[in-house]
Amino acid sequence: MHLRAYRTSILLGLFFTLLLSAFWFMPQLAFIIFLSLLLQLLLLPAVNQLNRRLPRALAAGLVLAAFVGLGFVLLGLVSSSFVPTFSRFITDFPQITEKFQNLPLLQESEFLHNELGNVWGEIKSTGITALRSSLQLLLSLFSKVIDFVIILFVTFYLLKDGEEIKQYLVTRFPQRDTDRVLKLFNNILGALRTYICSQLVICLITGIIVFLYFTVRDLPYASVFAMVSGIAEFIPVLGPTVASAFGTLLTATVEPFIALQTAGFYLLLTQINHNLVYPTLIGKSLNLHPIAIILGIILGGELLGATGMFLAVPFIVICKLVIEDIYENRLLQKKLQRESRWLAKKPTETQK
């Protein structure tokens, strides 16, 4: 095997291995850069639209300023409505647990009481830990002023000079494979943009629908369950399942029949999201198997905690695209080697 023919593949593998391993060795710096990249991908279409009429730097500044303003407005709304409800939920949680354990169905069966009690304990622990970790993750972005300012500056320069930075990185690879590397970078950025935009839309839709359901049914802690369900959508497969079970079991403390209706509601919502909303927004652009997603989320949680669970799917997307590119290039090199050997033999056969 001629290593020179696979030099670009080796460099790509090393480049992305070092890039992803930065989250383990330099998590704070890597997270700032990655979050800035996601914000850049989210805001890039708006900047490109404004850039038709305004200079690039001005367009990037205006879009980023509008995004920050919207963020502070949303933060104010969350602080005024969600935080008090969440505090009340945490205060009332011991009473909710006691009501759940005293349900008639559990009292009549010792097996169900023990088994569902264990399940309840696991879901309670997982749900509260995930929610607190998620809130800490979101609030830490605004509590660390310096990191927040750095993220804004990095995002601004990515919006302004992102194309030049990408072209510079591409030129670091062998010149004969420039088009290939550029295509790979564009595929990765396009997949990440599709993922982050789609996830935000799904989270927003899910949170609003859950909030409306709990409000219309006059069930308590509507904003808490809406926040749990919305955030859980960022952890595909596992997140919605845990959020659905958490919401259903908690509504059982109000009335068992309502819990059945809530279970049906969550089941319908999950089916609509996975069979209608997801295919419409994402289509087959990511094409990830549920097993790969589940294992990736578990591994991400083991390595980086809540942050790793949120970043698992983007990491899997990047690894998938890089591996596919290297594999396709290997097949191409093999084909070229076979053709070159065939052409080398052909003159000899002609001479005979």
What does it look like?
By secondary structure, the chain is an all-alpha fold. About 85% of the residues lie in helices and about 0% in strands. The chain has one domain (about 25-335). It is built from twelve helices and no strands. The longest helix is centred in the first third of the chain and has 46 residues, at about 55-100. The two termini are about 30 Å apart. The model has no long low-confidence stretch (mean pLDDT about 80). It holds the Pfam family AI-2E_transport. Keywords: Cell membrane, Membrane, Transmembrane, Transmembrane helix, Transport. Its main location: membrane.
Write the layout of secondary structure elements.
Blueprint: H1 7-25, H2 27-50, H3 56-101, H4 104-108, H5 110-143, H6 145-171, H7 178-216, H8 222-232, H9 238-251, H10 256-281, H11 290-304, H12 306-351
Helix pairs in contact: 1-2, 1-12, 2-3, 2-6, 3-6, 3-8, 5-9, 6-7, 7-8, 7-10, 7-12, 8-9, 9-10, 11-12
Pfam family, one: AI-2E_transport
Keywords: Cell membrane, Membrane, Transmembrane, Transmembrane helix, Transport
GO biological process, one term: transmembrane transport
